[in-house]
Amino acid sequence: MSDEEVALLDAYWRAANYLSVGQIYLLDNPLLREPLEPAHVKPRLLGHWGTTPGLNLVYAHLNRVIRARDLDMMYIIGPGHGGPGIVANAYLEGTYSEVYPTIGQDEAGMRRLFRQFSFPGGIPSHVAPETPGSIHEGGELGYALAHAYGAAFDNPDLVVACVVGDGEAETGPLAASWHSNKFLDPTHDGAVLPILHLNGYKIAQATVLARIPEAELDALMRGYGYAPLHVTAEVGEDPADTHRRLAAVLDEALDEIARIQREARAATAAGTEVPRQAWPMIVLRTPKGWTGPREVDGKPVEGTWRSHQVPITDARAHPDRVAELADWMRSYRPEELFDATGRLRPELAALPPAGQRRMSANPHANGGELLRALTLPDFRGYAVEVAAPGRSSTSATTVLGALLRDVIRANPTTFRLMGPDETASNRLGAAFEVTDRVWEGEILPTDEHLARAGRVMEVLSEHLCQGWLEGYLLTGRHGLFSCYEAFIHIVDSMVNQHAKWLKTTREIPWRRPIASLNYLLTSHVWRQDHNGFSHQDPGFIDHVVNKKAEVVRVYLPPDTNTLLSVADHCLRSRDYINVIVAGKQPALNYLTMEEAIAHCTRGLGIWDFASNDQDGADAGGDGLPDVVMACAGDVPTLETLAAVDLLRRHLPKLRVRVVNVVDLMALQSESEHPHGISDARFDALFTPDRPVIFAYHGYPWLIHRLTYRRTNHHNMHVRGYVEEGTTTTPFDMVMMNRLDRFHLVADVIDRVPALGARAAHVRQAMVDERLRARAYTREHGEDPPEIRDWVWPY
Amino acid sequence: MSDEEVALLDAYWRAANYLSVGQIYLLDNPLLREPLEPAHVKPRLLGHWGTTPGLNLVYAHLNRVIRARDLDMMYIIGPGHGGPGIVANAYLEGTYSEVYPTIGQDEAGMRRLFRQFSFPGGIPSHVAPETPGSIHEGGELGYALAHAYGAAFDNPDLVVACVVGDGEAETGPLAASWHSNKFLDPTHDGAVLPILHLNGYKIAQATVLARIPEAELDALMRGYGYAPLHVTAEVGEDPADTHRRLAAVLDEALDEIARIQREARAATAAGTEVPRQAWPMIVLRTPKGWTGPREVDGKPVEGTWRSHQVPITDARAHPDRVAELADWMRSYRPEELFDATGRLRPELAALPPAGQRRMSANPHANGGELLRALTLPDFRGYAVEVAAPGRSSTSATTVLGALLRDVIRANPTTFRLMGPDETASNRLGAAFEVTDRVWEGEILPTDEHLARAGRVMEVLSEHLCQGWLEGYLLTGRHGLFSCYEAFIHIVDSMVNQHAKWLKTTREIPWRRPIASLNYLLTSHVWRQDHNGFSHQDPGFIDHVVNKKAEVVRVYLPPDTNTLLSVADHCLRSRDYINVIVAGKQPALNYLTMEEAIAHCTRGLGIWDFASNDQDGADAGGDGLPDVVMACAGDVPTLETLAAVDLLRRHLPKLRVRVVNVVDLMALQSESEHPHGISDARFDALFTPDRPVIFAYHGYPWLIHRLTYRRTNHHNMHVRGYVEEGTTTTPFDMVMMNRLDRFHLVADVIDRVPALGARAAHVRQAMVDERLRARAYTREHGEDPPEIRDWVWPY
């Protein structure tokens, strides 16, 4: 770079830093036209300076290479605390004023820009959905690099620059994310340029990667499969030197990316392949809070953890600190950066790229703008035939696999299937008829379905599956994450953050809806035959139900055709978190496809084939059943129907209504959830006053919670998972948790009044049956044949 | 090793493998004395063979070095699927028969050993609490190495051998765990010997670390700070060669560990220090399912993912497969291993170490046996003086910090404080008066409270904090994990596993109680002034409440003295997961220490100072209040009292009772939780029929859930966090979620019948007050002074 180029770039950096400090501190006097007074300073100083100058430095340099190479580039920053810097850059590029016209490119606009930051009614202190150019909320650390890779997949012309802070680098998910390069195909995917930005400190102390020898860090990055390039700036050094070194390193990195892509793509075109190569990455060391106050109150601040938040605190009460703040801000020489109206000077405004090349305006960062609906095959075509309810068995996920296979075939670059090594185990193997697992590592002749390109992504890290998929969805594509039910809790906290993102974007007009985050939770709590207690946990549903009702949907399809209908619905939806829980083991089919569609559309309904409350309706006189047997989930539905069979045989006069729930949110009131049914409809299904025995897939309390405001809620008796389990047979498992047919029959007898002596006899018979089943199981190691082979006999 | 030693070691390995296969397959005929028949084979084959022979190999070799060096060694295995191997070794060492006398060292015992595995009424398929020598449940992957380091801390004479499977190595938590060596002090801590056991496959496909070049893997391990030693065994090679190489490498590794410790300890004794050194680790590559069937149905099995579970399936229905199984088992030559009675031959029984040197009998693996109660200072000595309720403010966690400082001082080797870089931020900085953050990386002159040894462990990985602490507790020590409330969800799934462990161990007589896992959740949802929405989530409480009631406790101390009382109680407790939620910001004090102790002992109670329902009790005639204002949590308590103040001023005749809840589980029925209060007591506190306005710290539904079975539950009106928030002022935050004083007053007016026109006027005034507060906040950027400075005025 010429001296002039360096000077301009440095001025641009100063402008971003100036605007960053202004956002943290100032209510007024944004251009320091008058002497800074305490009244110009915000009363509560809330923000994070420490990471910001480094992020601004990288931003300015990326602008240079975008212009020089006409790059399509996104900027993802792990240290989301650097909110003011990213906002400042979006403002400098004009994007901010385009999406928020009241924040104009003049002094009044700058005043509003400063005032709104971390201010009531304003914008958050972190990078957030409100920030143009962002797909990554700053807050919880660890997911930046996984998001970056997710964005790069199937975007061959995109380069995602991703800053990893040295705090974030200590997290588990980030430590695993470096290995994402084993899943990125240089031919069909874009590139990720990781920038490990070490400023040496977390909130209050040193960080691991900043305090190991450079050779050790270099080995670590090489071990992760990267070719590291190092740039270090020290406190007090002339930034011009840093600019030159960083520019050279960035050019080298981008040349390398271009070379790797060129060679790989040429090889692919020629039908050959090149071995996996080490992608470039940059280790950038800059002082924390660089260009900020060197010392405050006699203690070093620049280059230490004391820069983390607000270096000069409580300025209003200390006029000398106001003066220090003014000196700090004037050190950026704002008069050289902004003209008399407050507008960025033209020679600086000419530096960033224009239009969609601006990182703040890159359309990938508002993925809904790029989103195209999936081409979906007609799910009815995959229906299993159901001649009579409850007679034939299918593995629901196996059939779903065929649908997903054809989704993949019809959408070869916009749909991915994620899972921690469970695609086959979860019976979705049909996908491998049309695609493979993407794998850039060594492939052996004995391997099956590993290839350099593929739609299936398997890594034994739920964090990576989730992070990749989030990045993929946020940039306008589609996907499904299939996971063992218990272990989806591993990403609880990531789900929180994604749900918060979705909730917030719904309130931002310029953010376009994105495809929903779809979970298929299988290998569920009731069928951990191989694994036992450690693999049993249905609580993810409870976790998501705490999120805003507008963004969460939970489905418990009881059989294959309902699963197909639900899956189709989820793949078409936008801006939701859809949780589908469905077993992979062969299970009874109940509904024809037309019935399944009707049932799923309603969300829940009476299963007439299993109910006898309308037989001889005049018997009871009121047209109501004696008991409602409700069920949600495949195993609870099976046990409920088997219980109904026992009731019919033993207590034939009892009028039983069976209600199956596939859309769990339908149980709630209309006021609580958009899928909630009216109280009148709820009463019509569950009656105003009859006992309801509810067999539920998960923790029982959730059903009480969802039906809390319903007329008949005090008659709800819920069975579900109560944290009992081990490696045992499927029926022993439901017996341990009192969800089995025998317990359900006993529950009915305990709840329906005045059933008489015969019922007491039946109740004792159920206890005997249970003991007999248990004894058989312990003797033979499998469930009794009459239980294993039970089908709906009517 | 001599040829004879190799032959003996190999025979021991074969014995373990034989017993492993027998557990997976056989119901009977354990010594194959008669031809194997289908009836001898289990009907359901549930287990995992693939990882087992490798684990058995390592076990046999570790036995050799324990004997040779008289080592105190534990064995932690990540691939918990290898349950049959670890059980087999415990059986070979005699430990199994000691703790389970019915599983004797003879043919009948062996039959029971085989039959019980993965069998109804028997033992789980994974390593589990039932497995002697284990502190690490096999199931969810990723935590083995963190557990190993946690076990090694403050156990200077212990060596923890830790097998990391290549599936587990892909997880985030494990990827971060390698860096634990920056937190292990070679002078005062023991050693961890990581063994990365690569068999090349997960469930169904290749693994990342097995498919990168050895040089890259070597660089990765060096980058993590280890000196890797490589041992590779190929399919078909003579195991004797592997034995020799593995033995040599193990000797080298243990020599290195001894050298590092010797040098560090000599330096410490001399008052100097040596630089951090690379600890040895072993990369062991063995074929998956080594020694198992080479092929089944014409497909390669040994050395492929097809060995993962049960290589020969469905044997009962296929007599030829029964023959293959018999051939496989006979290939271990059981007649050379066991005598006619089924007892291990004496020359083999002489190989493992004896007594507590056996890894299956190491007392550290049953930490409760070693547990000693903490020496605790009298927490009353830290009390803040409370001359009148609600007048003075203290930062509760700052005062707790002083208590923790003295706990550390009094227990210099058995208590650690964990947190992701938040000890100071969470105001526990008093700890640094007596200790430092442990840090083996570079230390700079400007650093504060970093040292080679220390009681405070800070790493920006909640996974590591949790994993280390679990390992530390499970080996009989004590600790506390302080964490930002929102981000504790990161370890949701780890908490599940620990809760399951605790629940299970309570039912195993030989497992002794361990210290509780104590969480201090601070920087909570209501005071994320700097951070906003991404840092707000109070749902961890909901998560733990789904676990078994016997193992979970949740406390919401409203002020400093109650926090001290609760903390003392938690530090004394055993086998619980204690969740304490307490703010770090200065907040009002309500109770003297004596009052706090009484209140915490009851768990909840009427605050007379804030109630006026007994004033002129004859007024209403029934002695009951018009409304109960309940609160749980510091911020809700503040808003409740401020609302009571408003009610007194505006509606002085309204009889208000204030109930504060510190022990959340007390709300439940006695039948639901051991801390639950009786219905009579609940009715006495909350009345049978008066409206209850409940201001709660977290998601409102939990209060409904906990009080679901109470008489007055239909009158509960709960306010809490409803997923609204951003970076704003504290009072704006409570207003956004309708938890503020003005909303609470309006709730009272809406719920108490017949309050008349004056109340309608007051209700409108509350709306006005709210709008005024919001306007003030948006104008000034801080809360109105009368809100900020409010104190209890009576």
Approximately how much helix is present in the residues of chain A?
Answer: 25-40%
> Which word captures the global form of chain A?
elongated
Number of helices of chain A: 25
Assembly category: homodimer
Please report the two chains with the greatest interface, counting residues with C-beta closer than 8 angstroms to the partner's C-beta. Answer: A-B, 124 and 124 residues
Rg of chain A: 30 Å
Taken as a percent bin, the fraction of beta residues of chain A is 5-15%
- For the terminal residues of chain A, how far apart are their CA atoms? 84 Å
Structural class of chain A: alpha/beta
Largest sheet of chain A: 6 strands, parallel
Pfam families (chains A, B): XFP (PF03894), XFP_C (PF09363), XFP_N (PF09364)
Keywords (chains A, B): Coiled coil, Lyase, Thiamine pyrophosphate
Domain Xylulose 5-phosphate/Fructose 6-phosphate phosphoketolase N-terminal (chains A, B): 2-369
GO molecular function (chains A, B): aldehyde-lyase activity; magnesium ion binding
